[in-house]
Write a structure and sequence with these properties.
mainly alpha, about 0% strand, elongated, Chemotaxis methyl-accepting receptor HlyB-like 4HB MCP domain-containing protein, single chain
Length: about 210
C-alpha cells in the first residue's frame, strides 16, 4: 500500500509545483506585456504633446513678427528712410504668415474671421504709417516750410523769453516847511513907550 501511494504522491506534488510555476510565469508575462504596452502608450502621448503644433508655431511667429515690425517702424521714425525696405519686407512676411495660418484654419470660421480682422488692422496701420512718412518727408525736404517753422519757433521763443532788464522808477516828494516870524507889535509898542518915556522923563528931570 505504501509503495503504491509513494509514486502517486510524488507525481501529484510535482504536478502542483509545475502548475504553480506555469501560472506564475503566465502572470509575469502578462504583467510584462501590460507594462510594456502602458510604457509605449505613455511615450507616444509624450511625443505627441512635445511635438509643436503648426498652428501654435504660426501664432508665435505672427506675434514675433508684429513686435519686430513695430520696432522697425519706431526706428524708422528716428533714423530716417534707410529702414523703409526692412519695414516693407517685414510687413510682407507678416501678411504671408497670416495667409498660411488662414489656410491651416479651413473649417474654423471664427479663426478665419479673426485672421481677416488682423489683416485689415495691419493694412490700416500700414496706410497710416505711409501717410506719416510722406508728411515727414515733405516737411524735411520743403526748405520754405522748414524756414517758416523755424521762424515761427523763433517768434514763440522770443515772446516766451523773460525780460532780464528791469527798469525801476522811484518818485519822491519833498516837502519844505518855512517858518515866518510874525512881528510882535505889543512888544514893539512897549519898547517905543519905554524909549520915549526915558527920553522925555530925562528931560523933565532936568
Amino acid at each position: 500500500m505504501s509503495t503504491l501511494r509513494g509514486p502517486s504522491f510524488l507525481k501529484s506534488v510535482k504536478g502542483k509545483i509545475f502548475l504553480g510555476f506555469f501560472i506564475a510565469s503566465l502572470a509575469l508575462a502578462a504583467s510584462w506585456i501590460t507594462s510594456k504596452l502602458a510604457f509605449d502608450n505613455m511615450l507616444t502621448t509624450l511625443e505627441t504633446l512635445s511635438t509643436p503644433d503648426d498652428k501654435m508655431r504660426l501664432v508665435n511667429k505672427i506675434f514675433r513678427d508684429i513686435l519686430t515690425l513695430d520696432h522697425l517702424q519706431n526706428e524708422r521714425k528716428l533714423k530716417g528712410e534707410e529702414l523703409d525696405d526692412e519695414v516693407l519686407a517685414q510687413s510682407v512676411e507678416l501678411i504671408a504668415t497670416l495667409d498660411t495660418l488662414n489656410d491651416r484654419s479651413l473649417g474654423d470660421e471664427m479663426q478665419m474671421i479673426r485672421i481677416d480682422s488682423m489683416k485689415k488692422i495691419l493694412k490700416e496701420r500700414e496706410k497710416i504709417y505711409g501717410d506719416y512718412v510722406k508728411v515727414r518727408s515733405q516737411l524735411v525736404t520743403n526748405k520754405d516750410l522748414e524756414d517758416e517753422v523755424k521762424s515761427i519757433s523763433g517768434l514763440i521763443t522770443t515772446k516766451t523769453r523773460p525780460d532780464s532788464t528791469v527798469v525801476k522808477t522811484e518818485k519822491r516828494t519833498t516837502t519844505t516847511t518855512v517858518y515866518t516870524e510874525v512881528p510882535d507889535t505889543t512888544q514893539k509898542a512897549s519898547e517905543k513907550k519905554g524909549f520915549f518915556g526915558r527920553v522925555f522923563g530925562g528931560e523933565q528931570e532936568k
